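#structure-requests
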Amino acid sequence: MTAAPRDGAERWTHLVFVATLLLKGALGVMLIVLSLIDIAVIGLTVHEWRGRHRQLRAAR
C-alpha cells in the first residue's frame, strides 16, 4: 500500500513538524550539556573551597 501524494500544504506542515522536532531535540541536548557543565563547575568550586578551608585550618 502506497501513501497518497501530498499537496503543498501537507508537505509544508510536515516540514515544519520535523523542523520543530529537530529543534526540540537540539535544545534538549544543549540543556543536558549545559547542566553537566554547571555540575562540573559547582563541583570544582566546592573542591577549591574545601582546599582553602583546610589550608586556613592548618594555618591556625
